[in-house]
Structure prediction request, 1704 residues.
Amino acid sequence: MNYTSEQANILVQALPYIQQYYGKTIVIKYGGNAMIDDALKASVLRDIVLLRFVGMNPILVHGGGPEINQMMKRVGKEPTFIGGLRVTDEETMEIVEMVLAGKTNKGIVSIINTLGGQAVGLSGKDAKLIEAEQKDAALGFVGSVTNINPEILHTLANQGYIPVISSVAIGPNGESLNVNADHIAGAIAAAIGATKLLMLTDVTGIFEDKDDPSTLKSVLSKEEALGMIKSGKIDKGMIPKVEACITALDGGVERTHIINGTLPHAVLMEIFTDTGIGTMIESS
Amino acid sequence: MNYTSEQANILVQALPYIQQYYGKTIVIKYGGNAMIDDALKASVLRDIVLLRFVGMNPILVHGGGPEINQMMKRVGKEPTFIGGLRVTDEETMEIVEMVLAGKTNKGIVSIINTLGGQAVGLSGKDAKLIEAEQKDAALGFVGSVTNINPEILHTLANQGYIPVISSVAIGPNGESLNVNADHIAGAIAAAIGATKLLMLTDVTGIFEDKDDPSTLKSVLSKEEALGMIKSGKIDKGMIPKVEACITALDGGVERTHIINGTLPHAVLMEIFTDTGIGTMIESS
Amino acid sequence: MNYTSEQANILVQALPYIQQYYGKTIVIKYGGNAMIDDALKASVLRDIVLLRFVGMNPILVHGGGPEINQMMKRVGKEPTFIGGLRVTDEETMEIVEMVLAGKTNKGIVSIINTLGGQAVGLSGKDAKLIEAEQKDAALGFVGSVTNINPEILHTLANQGYIPVISSVAIGPNGESLNVNADHIAGAIAAAIGATKLLMLTDVTGIFEDKDDPSTLKSVLSKEEALGMIKSGKIDKGMIPKVEACITALDGGVERTHIINGTLPHAVLMEIFTDTGIGTMIESS
Amino acid sequence: MNYTSEQANILVQALPYIQQYYGKTIVIKYGGNAMIDDALKASVLRDIVLLRFVGMNPILVHGGGPEINQMMKRVGKEPTFIGGLRVTDEETMEIVEMVLAGKTNKGIVSIINTLGGQAVGLSGKDAKLIEAEQKDAALGFVGSVTNINPEILHTLANQGYIPVISSVAIGPNGESLNVNADHIAGAIAAAIGATKLLMLTDVTGIFEDKDDPSTLKSVLSKEEALGMIKSGKIDKGMIPKVEACITALDGGVERTHIINGTLPHAVLMEIFTDTGIGTMIESS
Amino acid sequence: MNYTSEQANILVQALPYIQQYYGKTIVIKYGGNAMIDDALKASVLRDIVLLRFVGMNPILVHGGGPEINQMMKRVGKEPTFIGGLRVTDEETMEIVEMVLAGKTNKGIVSIINTLGGQAVGLSGKDAKLIEAEQKDAALGFVGSVTNINPEILHTLANQGYIPVISSVAIGPNGESLNVNADHIAGAIAAAIGATKLLMLTDVTGIFEDKDDPSTLKSVLSKEEALGMIKSGKIDKGMIPKVEACITALDGGVERTHIINGTLPHAVLMEIFTDTGIGTMIESS
Amino acid sequence: MNYTSEQANILVQALPYIQQYYGKTIVIKYGGNAMIDDALKASVLRDIVLLRFVGMNPILVHGGGPEINQMMKRVGKEPTFIGGLRVTDEETMEIVEMVLAGKTNKGIVSIINTLGGQAVGLSGKDAKLIEAEQKDAALGFVGSVTNINPEILHTLANQGYIPVISSVAIGPNGESLNVNADHIAGAIAAAIGATKLLMLTDVTGIFEDKDDPSTLKSVLSKEEALGMIKSGKIDKGMIPKVEACITALDGGVERTHIINGTLPHAVLMEIFTDTGIGTMIESS
Prediction:
């Protein structure tokens, strides 16, 4: 591309936002279709490389739903669920870990590095980044976060690397535990003192009435969000996303956002605008 | 501004250029109308603040022709010239220094700081940055550069400051010397190991035939440039600009450019394009 | 000079004072005749270079009264005063800034550097060192300090530079404001955590009875000083000097002194003696 | 354990070896049965944690043969070989990467961290650690090393982490390439300036006559080793191990060793003895 | 020594203890027969070099009783004691200092350095490490600690040196003072924030009944220890050892131990065991 | 002392010399009467503390002749000499070391620290600073320098300490060796890259004719000095002093001086004068 004066002007208009987030850490939960569609994937990751080069410290957290199911199918295992949570026996856990840490994670790392960034992939086992404990014996190797050891993230960020974290945790005896990636993103944002948490989903945000696009809530207080979970207006996959935002807010993160990762340049549009996009959940 | 997806896309297209110049030093000779017209001034300086925030180290060098003449007139002094060079008696030198270091320099610094940058103004006397000697007794306090002490520039750049340098040098006995700002820009680019030198002027570049806009030379070798000075195709105010480029090239600067600073976002257009704008003078 | 044993002995006697102030910051308000008479000027600045080489961090703040008036006269402007304060219209402000930041400041810097020191001149605009707001619309561009950003002073001092600061501040919109240099010295001493503030004047100190030299007050408490302002015993140009001392004391500076800068080596005599010279104003 | 005086004595005897390798980097190719048998695995990795705590910088490189074959079988893929090299189509490559980077690597990391070490797992994609190119179109995604970017290893080692590297490389377009782990160990030892390279295998070392245990070669020159490859005395899986040693020696590594990783504490016995175990290949 | 697998196993068993004390400071009061018998001396000091190489920061404090008496005899001076304390006139103090700082200290330093460690000997005069005041005019130059300046210990430890400290302090006028080495060890452990204090003696520990070896107290609380001093069960040379432990505990040291330095590898046995040896005195 | 203006003037005249040696290392061989007479001792050491506070890095090397002889006498040992060198049996070596490292060294350290400096005493055993080998079996424990390990001097100087070094070296087996202090001073000046070496003696310098004070040689080339040794004009105790200067010059030291340490402030007079005092020996 050869910049015209008009295009250069657009560049310059980003300056106030760049200044605002210079040197700040932004945790991004990367998931949904933005992680499946190849063009979209490259677009989101290029946005993140840009954030790094304009002085921010982006940290990516990802899960990997569909790829896990494919792999399960290939080895002939049938997924079972209890109350929406995947029952994770030892064999399943092994597949989950191989897919998340060996395929999805390294795929993201490779794209970022090809785009000129410097990514390093981590699972929760590396440097004991994410410690967890078993949630419920009936669910098997499903865990909930007990502790984050963020030193490795500081080490990498100080040297200009972008950490890419897969949602596998280490249990008390070194075993692998399958932990919800949304929850991990919230816990890491809190532990690292992030300025912003961005949760990428496939929908525009949180609605008062999901069938009425005009009822999008641009801003929600923590209390309102909890109320909407109680009342069922926030349900299913949106619940852990909202919980992650609340964990982050309780840990001192300034702003948390649920945005539509399938919109081209959603991440940039959220950061480089005054009003933001999607739904912002804030403390008070 | 609230970024649309298309505008965010323009941002992202800057990525390869940002990567290319990340951590690199770019010396910019700032002058001509780009320094006089207020809107243009703000525009150029905002571009420079942007360069800093996307990871480059811009260093500004400026002269201040018209403002000096105005001040001369106000105190009732008539400018005299020998061979195109201003005869600089002690009283003139005092005015030159006051205008350059006290008015022009601090004006630029103030605008940059208001735009969110962190500028520090320097004259060649500060930390003995620019040492010079008298050129010709007949010209009085007119000097040519003998030595650059770039340490203060490293100190400031390492802390994120943008140095803004006025074209006054320090003589062997601490006296002020009036040195051509183009020459200073070239000497500083060489001494600091800059990657790029940008000379802002009021014309598009160097032409084979100044009356025929279609004869713009996009690229000139050092030898070709010297030939065009000899043949008179490069003349007057363009000569010190070309000399500055050659000083820089001889000192190891990779690329030097003469561009039209009155074009909106000329600096960005030069850096954020493959083909560049104006005339590039290169070593071989 | 070739030191005799007796002279070396005098050197050695300075040791306890050098030890006492080793690594400490000393803010010096430089002004009055010590800034006008050339021999005196060189003498004061050589003393300051010495302070730096024996391990202290001197910071100079200067105004520039007489030079401003001369320049005003040269451009045919008549100074106007309201209640002792210079009415500063835009044209006057421009002259004030040119003289202070372009002439006086660079002159001091040049002498220090010629004496083997490493000075860097700053105005309040550089790195937004001194932020101010308009004092009174009737006075025009006259300001009072609202904030000091001392980071640039730390950056320079850590690298061995002596900062020399002219009394021009930056207003909320980047405009220049004329601020009393005494007040700036006090505010900077407070902001940087100086150990000592020295105010150079043309008189011996503060007297109970100005007509009776035997009534010099060697030490004054803050309360006594305020009382003497109220009673009129401290008046005119001495008032801002005493106010500067009080600002510094309130900001945690240990000792503040009003001394006669026209005495040869007054600065050294104040620092290298147990009893000091002039008048010391202290907190309790 | 409660140390007796005799046991403490054994500890103390290690001192000369600890001193010899203090602060030195030791690259260990971990493989064979030492990576399969659980007790042996824990034992080898505990030895490596010990090396770190007594001041050395161990770096592990691993492949993962048997686990790849198991996974291939589970998804119903039949391994094909050309000239002893696994034909690696895209699907196979995906499985190889998942197993190596997602299972084997994280398993090793987890054990080290449970033993009190601080391991971080890397594949050749992370920070573009291992760049490779396709070896032969007929073999598909099989690569040979073209470049090592060792900066991430320095970053991690400086902070006390033990890097654990799986043998997957990044191709020119970001694709995954399957590279022989022995070759990677040799290339990394050379690139990082290791002091020692240890290749763990299942046999005692290199023999003049494989059927006669008394013909073990304790020391081989590079030339002798090349001769034994030519003459067929070194064959099959031993060839890439010897090639790795030669790459390391050519890159300046002081000593390279082929040792039997199934011997308990083989790593310690090699380092903490004057004569060493297995076969040492040296430069001249 | 060439390690066998069994011996390597003993090495590995030290790992948990090495991990526990990695980077921690351990002050060791070195004295008694462990300082007289040559073989024992080498053995204790080799243990200490080992501690340094496995990541701990050992600091040695020593006195030198018997060597002082020998030297006294050689110059024909008769030791006098008041209440168990050596009356120290000026001549005696001179001999004490020469022996401690010139002979004993340098002897220990030399052995450590010959064993591959990096020791630096200090007396309390160096960098004013140990400040003291006269205890009792009747005793002459006998002092008690008033202040520790531990900066020199940090400087040396950060560079890998083992500080070896002789029990001579500096008085208010620079004079030498003879201070009990046990007390110095306790004061230094407190000032430097040690993790552990080891007092080496010639007996197994503290006994409820000194004539009944079965009554060894493995653990004593500070209160119990004070009680045993009061009741006379702890007496003579054991008193200052216990007082040193209490000083250390009051200064925040975690664990203090009185152990038998004549046991081979007593230091290692205390550190590399769960139960420890000798008597541990702890805070609560 | 309260400085008068005249005395302050003397201070300021030192500035050019302070600037010239700022940050430079000056090795001073301290000996002769300047080390015996108490008033002179305090005076010399105060001069050295001053050097440190005005930015130089002084390093002291001392021997201790008379105190050794006194101690020998006290223990009833008769000194024996072969060719002017003290025959040093084991018992003598022990006394030499005790006196030098335990008495003389700590005495100097104590005075410096009382004067406000920060001295640390070292013998050649500390950090193996001075390695030596036996000179001649007939002389016993007399050594000549084989190697200097200057790291400990850098460590101490970087933290502001003044190293004070006694002339005892460490032999190949850790034994003490008595080495000429002049030679040590020369070897250390060479190894540390000193700018200046000052040898303090009891005479004015080197004379063409020792009986004629008017024949003082202010400057000698290395060749001339060697010639005067050959011809016997330089003899006895002056020989090792001149040899030390030559060792230093060969090691790159710029200037070496033999001066009269009994002159009050001889050290300062040598450094703070253009012409120097005593005899300078220079390379060419």
